[in-house]
Design a protein that fits this description.
This protein is mostly helical. It contains 18 helices and two strands.
Length: about 350
């Protein structure tokens, strides 16, 4: 109704602001195409200097939507525009939030140098930016810098304990981060904290679908880590509604439900999801996620051990090793090499 009124009254600034609000609400409800459409309309309308802040905010949600949907090329175009605006007006308000979107794109394409640059700038601000801590944690662990990763993880945990209105967002990030780290390192550390954080989010009186998704992602990874079939089935039913999207910095939904299917003992269903994850990552250009998908798919094939599974598993491990070696993903490289040796024995 607000958009209709703004159009009727010929008030583009009001219409642009309302379209931005609509982009936020749609994104919080995991309606990425709607969020993208509203964001694009807000940018189109925000043509005056007075609307620069609104345009920055709208472009941030455009980038977020495109990254979730797997359109890296389109996201990069808006990321460059967002970066230029950040450079022109280095204002503290929202500065770290917008840098977090730049860091998210960089981590999805494996540009670790850019992730460090953006997170260093954002985390150097006087106010702690929650959205930048999780990408930095994942960066350090993905590249084998676990000591540095521990430092940023402790900062994230400390932020969660002191969070007020952003408690659900922080707790969801903690749950996802700890569970994902355990999968990268193979060390089941702090899993009880991850579970408690997720349950805290889901038991809150008011929660956005996006925060619920983050918490469910943490619980899904925990179910895989523990081999919990009933927990895997519960999270599978929820997560499959988001197939064909990315849980930014953590996992593609298709890879995650492939792992859940494997945990549930349904190998053929798992293979179908992993194939979808491969197609999604290749099309999107998400190379670190592609490398992990290849490795996880190979693990499932080794367990299923059907006709042709060993040959395909070796090919997938070769692809995973090539990507992880090029990107310097040391923990994944070591994981792949151990599995190749096993299959070659």
């Amino acid at each position: 109704r607000a958009i209709a009124i703004a159009r009727r009254e010929g008030d583009p600034p009001l219409e642009a602001q309302t379209e931005y609000y609509a982009a936020v609400v749609s994104g919080q409800h995991l309606r990425w195409q709607e969020s993208l459409d509203h964001g694009l309309r807000a940018v189109e309308l925000g043509i005056s200097d007075e609307n620069l802040l609104s345009e920055k905010q709208s472009r941030a949600w455009i980038v977020s939507s495109l990254l979730h949907m797997g359109d890296l090329d389109a996201a990069r175009t808006h990321t460059l525009a967002l970066r230029d605006m950040v450079e022109r007006r280095n204002t503290p308000r929202g500065f770290g939030f917008r840098l977090a979107h730049l860091a998210s794109l960089a981590i999805l394409e494996g540009d670790w140098k850019a992730v460090r640059e953006y997170s260093d700038r954002g985390l150097g601000c006087s106010t702690i930016n929650l959205a930048l801590l999780l990408p930095r944690v994942m960066l350090e662990y993905e590249t084998g810098e676990s000591a540095q990763g521990e430092i940023y993880l402790e900062r994230l945990l400390l932020t969660m304990r002191g969070a007020g209105p952003t408690r659900s967002l922080t707790s969801g990030n903690v749950s996802m981060g700890i569970a994902a780290i355990a999968r990268i390192t193979g060390v089941p550390d702090r899993l009880e904290i991850a579970e408690e954080a997720a349950e805290e989010v889901l038991s809150a009186q008011f929660i956005t679908p996006r925060d619920a998704m983050n918490a469910k992602t943490g619980l899904a990874l925990l179910a895989v880590q523990k081999g919990d079939q009933s927990g895997a089935a519960e999270q599978y039913a929820y997560l499959q509604e988001q197939r064909g999207t990315m849980i930014v910095t953590i996992s593609s939904v298709d890879r995650l439900i492939g792992l859940l299917s494997q945990t549930m003992g349904n190998m053929d269903q798992s293979a179908a999801h992993f194939e979808e994850a491969l197609a999604f990552c290749r099309k999107a250009g998400y190379r670190p996620e592609l490398a992990w998908t290849c490795c996880d798919y190979a693990d499932m094939l080794r367990e299923r051990n059907g006709d042709g599974d060993k040959v395909l598993a070796i090919a997938l491990l070769d692809e995973s090793l090539a990507i992880s070696s090029e990107l310097g993903m040391r923990p994944l490289m070591e994981r792949v090499l151990a599995r190749r040796d096993f299959l070659s024995a």
